[in-house]
Amino acid sequence: MHERTVKRRRPAFLGVLLCNILEWYDFVIYGLLAVYLAGAFFPQQSDTVALLATLAVFGVSFVMRPLGGLILGGLGDRKGRKPGLVITAGLMGAATFAIGILPTFEAIGLVAPILLLLARLVQGFSAGGEWGIANAFLLEVSPEGRRGFSTSFLSVTVAVGSGLASAVAAILVSTLSPESLKDWGWRVPFLIGGSLGIVALWLRTGMVETPVYGPVAGRATSTAEVLRLIRRPSLTVIGFTMHWTVCYYIFLVYMPLFAQRHAGLSAAQATWSNTLALVAIILLVPLIGRLSDRFGRRPFLLCSCLLVLMMVIPAMWMIVALRSFPLVVSMQLLFAVAIALYSGPAPAVIAELFATPDRSRWSAVSYAIAAAVFGGFAPFIAVWLTTALDSPLAPAGYVVAAAATSLLVVWNMPETAHRPIS
């Protein structure tokens, strides 16, 4: 590869990663502040009902992800990766800033949760397009034999953005009084994320198009041919993503709430434990992505599914029974390893299953469907199962079902690590 080409690609590579961090910071901070949002935007006759309503809004936003993948991902396939990535950055920044300035239920009544829902729908639409376009971009600028390593940084940015959100939440709950958090403190992270959207737009306007996309730009394919080409990889991605997205949203979004309600941890302890788990994921994912380039993707994916299947029930039981902060940290670190084993090779697998003309749109749509159906509603399902079955261990059954399904999919899917991309 020519030195000039490498120099041009590095800023684009960094631009995608930095902006994706902001995308996921904006998206995850909502889940971490769900308790305070419930108090601000919903009636307070019942704390559980208000929390369920807040988590339902979190989940409903995922319904927009497939639509975002279809429209914005389609733009990425038709017009290029850059235009789609610029639009997703602008939409996410605007919606996040809007949440930070919305009036509360006390001020404007039922209009408040409606406006919150609209902002979350825009965030979901943006995130649905973001993932597929960014993943296609990273794959297509990767050096030969390093696709797993390069695309693993997409998972790193998700963890960094989530970790940044977790750290900001931890700082807030550690420094502000509960009254201040309830009154105005919850707005601060959203205003920060929205303001950084300007930086995201600036970075992405300087990107260059990928070399793989250029030769296929504008290539026309019949609808019947597209459906034939994408049917099998799309179904594979949906089943493949179940374990990944359920683990992520149960162990990194729902777990802080679980630790507070069922293990007696303070809000600060729960959020700092979450942050440590995310740091572990950030450190491990690139290593595992690189190893998957050498040894293949499937061994690491299978290990992740098996680890979760073996450990989720005893781990959650110990957390509830022993009610220990060090134990919660240890269990979250264990699940962080399982998530990293999957997150390292997973982005490359999803992108490698599709051809270049369809990669941005259909990888985004397939991933978004799985994330919407199985991941986005995971915190809501966890709270609902706990209430319906009167057991804090009930969410473990949901995790087991997802891990078992993805295990079967991974076992039967092809190894993609050493296949050339088309």
Task: Write a concise keyword list for the protein shown above.
422 residues; mainly alpha; Growth Hormone, Chain: A; disordered N terminus
What is the beta-strand fraction?
under 5%
The termini sit apart by: 19 Å
Annotation field: number of helices? 18
State the name of the first-level CATH class.
Mainly Alpha
Rounded to an integer, what's the Rg over CA atoms? 20 Å
Can you tell me about this structure?
There is one protein chain. The chain is mainly α and 422 residues long. It has a single domain, classed as MFS general substrate transporter like domains (Growth Hormone, Chain: A), CATH 1.20.1250.20. It is globular and about 55 Å long. The protein starts with a helix and ends in a 10-residue tail after the last helix.
Question: Could you give a short description of this structure?
Answer:
The chain has 422 residues and is mostly helical. Helix content is 82%, strand content 0%. It has 18 helices and no strands.
Write the layout of secondary structure elements.
Elements: H1 3-32, H2 34-41, H3 47-60, H4 64-78, H5 81-101, H6 105-108, H7 111-140, H8 147-175, H9 178-185, H10 187-205, H11 223-262, H12 267-295, H13 298-322, H14 325-343, H15 346-352, H16 356-375, H17 378-389, H18 395-412
Helix pairs in contact: 1-5, 1-7, 1-8, 1-10, 2-3, 3-17, 4-5, 4-7, 4-16, 5-7, 5-10, 7-8, 7-15, 7-16, 8-12, 8-15, 11-12, 11-13, 11-14, 11-16, 11-18, 12-14, 13-14, 13-18
